[in-house]
């Protein structure tokens, strides 16, 4: 408590001059702008204006009393700037207080370039907007406030015997920014104590309790505590001791403490909402002790403590470690004691105990423990995880390990009378020579395990288990050389009530050796999985139990259908692209008999993984019965097909055939033109379904039919000499149908599938613009760009079935169709004679399947007869 009565007597003494020693120079009371440049032995009552203390080369010392800021003035206690100049001193240890800002008084700016000292260097009961220290604040206490301070900036030193900054009950500080040093040396005090409210406390320098209590002690509320410098507690002290509430605590610097204390102590009934450590917490005692409530605690830095990195007797809702946690001998790195609880503990970093220590010790409640990193104790350590309470769900995706030891059994997870309803081991749980992965002296309801290898690596990979067997044991399968293997005590003949398979793995082997090692008795076995019969078979050579599977895998069969559909999609894309591009085939170079013949070649490539493309020969013919219209037909005959992987093979023996008719108002390309085209193609198709997992392969043949019709209208405008621009619009209907078929029964296809017809169709609106340029002698350049948008589609389903493989579902042939797509054409032709023409055309199309495009190149020779 502050000596209020003494202070009031002191105020009266100042006002009436009672404390002026005989023969000493008195100090003038200041009521307006002034500079005090001479020493005096009495206090100054400052009641207005700007005040500067000090003069060059000489101290201005107020020896016995202090600078008293009074509200008794014409300006109602609102004062401007108070500056203590370089080389000047306010107060001394013989005086009660260096600077006292009285209740009702306000200082806009308080700047210290000199020294302020006293039993309390600065005492604030009023308001200070800005308090900046660039040099020294010394004495008993540094800054003691029950009033309001906007900002405290310390670039210098606050070194006192008692508390450096004390924000008492009822006090409010907007921000404390420390760039220098704040220290206290008296046992039982904090460098910074808060019983009021601090919005933000930033330490970029050093805050040190040299005497032994705490760097920062909070019994009130701190919005944000941010340490990027050094925060140190002395012997028996704490870097941070919280008995109130802290919204956010961030340490990116260093927190240290001596014996019998620790880094951070969150006391009973206290709260820290968000605690993040990306720096270091290093102590010879405890790292973090929580007896209250911490909502979120994240460590991405390092916590190194002899007495344990994190100890909780309270509640931690979320604890995440991505850095390193380390503890000394005979102590747990993370310890849950008494009524402590951690709702979710997730480790992706490292948790390392020293000799004779424990990684995680739970004596009460951990609801979910997730390990993606490492939890380890070295040689001489005991348990990586020790549980006498309850861990509701323990998920291990990383490494849990205990080293070698002499005289004791090292254990990865020791469930010592505790309860673990679900333990999922998808990583490794190991112990040194003579140790055991899991020792269960309590209850484990369900153990799901994928730790293991194969017959030749049992001693190093199998999960060793001792004690009470889990009620349910499920084996996880990753590959034929990585699957769950459980090793039990030799000769103990343990009984497992239920053995099954974890999850829904796609199996690729029919025999998994030594899934259970030892004389294990299984009461109930999951005897059906993935349409297959499951059995545990005793191996006469190893005396272990192998797991075998007979039958045809439903998941393998289903995946093979998906893979086949993915191979069919580029084939459908190729045929549809050839069909749509054929609607652009034309022949309009006529001779005296009004006949046009065009021959050439085409190559179309699909952006599929297998490099699908085909090459064809083209023959196009047209007849012009009237100058304004023409009719024609064409044939597109495949010459070769490149389809690496050969899941789907197309024949090349039948051509795509089509007809077209066009009407144009003018023969020079301007004005109106309407063109209608239709085409039909047929391909024999062989489908080789590949085996996946424990499914079968299969081969069958079908017929793929492609047909469609297109109508398009355009109008040509002359926009410059030799240049025509032609907007166009149209509609197209296409369909691609593959007939139903059945696979052939063979020795490798015992359950052939029968397939329904696969039908796709689309009605598509077309819009775009084309252009041509004839400015080069005998040469015409042309290009177009447009958009195709499907107005109605049916994408079909690929579906094969067999009553011996129930549960096969249809495969959506195009899950995410691209309904609006760009297309572009670029080309040129050269007129050899009036009735002879060489042409080359390139066509780009975005197709209806995601990330699939086609490119087509055509070359033609045309002659008019």
Describe the structure.
The chain is built from three helices and 79 strands. The protein is mainly beta. The protein has a domain at 554-864: Autotransporter beta-domain (Lipocalin). The chain has a 23-stranded mixed beta sheet, with helices on one face. The chain has a 21-stranded parallel beta sheet, with no helix packed on it. Strands 6-9-12-15-18-21-24-27-30-33-36-39-42-45-48 form a 15-stranded parallel beta sheet, with no helix packed on it. Strand 68 and strand 69 (723-738) form a beta hairpin. The protein is flat. Mean pLDDT is 90; it is low at 1-24, 55-65 and 71-76.
Quote the beta fraction: over 45%
Q: What is the terminal-to-terminal distance? A: 117 Å
* Major sheet: 23 strands, mixed
Radius of gyration over C-alpha positions, nearest whole angstrom: 44 Å
Q: What is the C-level CATH assignment of the domain at 554-864?
A: Mainly Beta
| Helix fraction bin | under 10%
Q: Per the principal axes of the C-alpha atoms, what is the gross shape?
A: flat
User: What name does the CATH topology of the domain at 554-864 carry?
Assistant: Lipocalin
Provide a brief overview of the structure:
The chain is mainly β and 865 residues long.
Descriptive key words:
disordered N terminus, Lipocalin, 3 helices, 57% strand, 865 residues, mainly beta, single chain, 21-stranded parallel β-sheet
List the helices and strands and how they pair.
Layout: H1 4-16, E1 34-36, E2 44-46, E3 51-53, E4 67-69, E5 78-84, E6 89-90, E7 97-101, E8 106-112, E9 115-116, E10 120-124, E11 127-133, E12 136-139, E13 141-145, E14 148-154, E15 157-160, E16 165-167, E17 172-178, E18 181-184, E19 190-194, E20 197-203, E21 206-209, E22 214-218, E23 221-227, E24 230-232, E25 238-242, E26 245-251, E27 254-257, E28 262-266, E29 271-277, E30 280-283, E31 286-290, E32 293-299, E33 302-305, E34 310-312, E35 315-321, E36 324-327, E37 332-336, E38 341-347, E39 350-353, E40 358-362, E41 365-371, E42 374-377, E43 383-387, E44 390-396, E45 399-402, E46 411-415, E47 419-425, E48 428-431, E49 436-440, E50 443-449, H2 458-461, E51 463-467, E52 472-475, E53 477-479, E54 482-483, E55 486-487, E56 495-501, E57 511-517, E58 521-525, E59 528-529, E60 532-538, E61 545-551, H3 554-582, E62 595-606, E63 613-626, E64 629-642, E65 648-650, E66 656-664, E67 671-689, E68 698-720, E69 723-738, E70 741-742, E71 754-755, E72 758-776, E73 779-794, E74 797-798, E75 800-801, E76 811-812, E77 820-833, ...
Parallel strand pairs: 1-3, 2-4, 3-5, 4-7, 5-8, 6-9, 7-10, 8-11, 9-12, 10-13, 11-14, 12-15, 13-16, 14-17, 15-18, 16-19, 17-20, 18-21, 19-22, 20-23, 21-24, 22-25, 23-26, 24-27, 25-28, 26-29, 27-30, 28-31, 29-32, 30-33, 31-34, 32-35, 33-36, 34-37, 35-38, 36-39, 37-40, 38-41, 39-42, 40-43, ...
Antiparallel strand pairs: 53-54, 57-61, 59-60, 60-61, 62-63, 62-79, 63-64, 64-66, 65-67, 66-67, 67-68, 68-69, 69-72, 70-71, 71-75, 72-73, 73-77, 74-76, 77-78, 78-79
